[in-house]
Amino acid sequence: MIDAKGVVRGFDDGAGGRVTVLDGASLSVAAGEFVAVVGRSGSGKSTLLHVLGGLDTGYRGEVSVAGVRLDGLGDAALSRFRNETVGFVFQSFHLLSGVSALENVMLPARFSAAPGGELERRAREALARVGLTMHAARTPGQLSGGERQRVAIARALFASPRLLLCDEPTGNLDAETADGVVALFSALNASGLTIVAVTHEERLRAAASRVVTLAKGRLT
Amino acid sequence: MSASPWPLVWLSLRRDRRSALASTFGLAVGVASLVFFVALGLGVGRVVREKVFPVDARLVEVVPASFSLGLLGGGVLDEAAVGRLEALPGVARAYRKMNVRAPAVSVYRGDFFGRPLHMGLEVLAVGVEPDFVVGDVVVGAFADPGPDQPIPALASTRLLEIYNKSFAPQRSLPQLSGQLLAGFVFPVEFNRSFVTAPPPGAAAIPCRAQLVGVSDRALLAGITIPLEVARRLNRAANADADAYSAVTLEAKDPSAVPGLVAAVRAMGLEVDDQERRQAERAGAAVAICTSSLALVSLLVCVLAAFNIAHAFSAAVRAREKELGVMRAVGATRAALFRLVFVEALVLGLAGGALGTLVALLAGVAADAAAASMLPAFPFKPESWFSTPAWLLAGGLALGVVAAAAGAFLPARRAAASDPARVLAG
Q: What is the CATH number that goes with domain A2-219?
């Protein structure tokens, strides 16, 4: 599913210098795996996730995801890849405020090149998968933290992606809610979905089928 | 983004109602004031052009030179000169005019449309070729009826307007129309004057004149009669019955007029363009006033565009993470640009439509106020406004353009945002 080789990514440090976050990082993930990426804060875990999801293009190295070679792809092709192949789940949920859960889940369809038939039915199905059938009309402000994260997961699942990329998905949740979300990830993985999750959380690490550590720009 | 941007545009506008309303209101104020003032300028200009100084752009009024070159020719508008004028390139038709070169008065004592009237006034008369005014004759024929018959006469449309709006109300006389006046007979006595002595040995020539209509082309302060009647009266008064007082040239096209004017002057004749100049001066005054007000309105639109730029810049900053998520779920840079830009265009269209509608309603209200509060005066129009389709379309377009100009940079900033940076952490 994922084959990343020698990924190098650096950033300006704001003082005229440059800091290298990924320094020849390589990662292979098989289809159906649930991989937890751990590492210290600032070690480049989110950057790795953005590279794998086609959000970050300023790197060197080779990255293939689901048979798509990402390095060198243009904006339109990368956008289509993000729309159809991967789903993102963020620590801060990043839902559209003032907009219903249903509309939030349908967001990928607004940028899809694929036919948009039965959008609402598909969005309700995605909400049902995360256990929020009754909350479709609620706005994020009317939902709890755990419910918001479930809406974000439903949004990530809407386009039936082959890979779920999660950036600290339980970081803003209390223990009980986080357990529910981790259980949801386990169920999704059991149904065949490949998951790569960046985390500090022990419970997510425990749920993963494999744990890799990012340190000094490399994965071990 | 191949999918329609509209659902997200509506969502966004619905969510940020207050900001959207403020932007729309700003645009509407600018568009409304611009459309209002331009419509007012066009309306007043139309009154000046069509009623106060009704100038036909194809007509050139040729008059004899104020001095003659004697044996060298020039200066006299005789039949030979008219022939030369008719032969000028670009001339479609030449209409001869001859003043009645004897003084005349009209003394009226009797019923005037149901009111007693006792009035005596000096009368000027000019004879014109019937074809020049044939479209304005509503009763009988505009031709010489013979010495004992009433002379067909046309009154000036502008004179009738002045009578109706100034003279009649002050003297409790009835309001008249061209149709009502047609057929009215009044006495005219040539070779008589209240202010000058008649020529020695000249006998008075008593006649009757019958109004057959009103015309924009008729003499303002006098009557316009058939050319052959003027010629007959001049002969009877022992005055020049051969030379014309003026010749009106009708150009094939308004663009030929400048060349015609030059050719006429080269022939030693003059062009009486006093009316045209007055019309141009009045038109220019209206245009300057309108332009000044329109400029102020445009400035309001520019301010509205800045307001939109500010509002959208702030919105793009506030929605940075939201736009980043859109990138994460598959939005291209172009899609985000389109999203922000279309939002602005919707506001622009709404502001333009609202502003145009407000301007139209304000025009109707101003017309109603003018009709009820302003006293009647000559050339007072029923409507002070002219709103051609291009002006309404321009109002809409101005709103859209101002919004587009304001939103362009914020939309580019939205498209250029780095999702990896804004979604980190």
A: 3.40.50.300
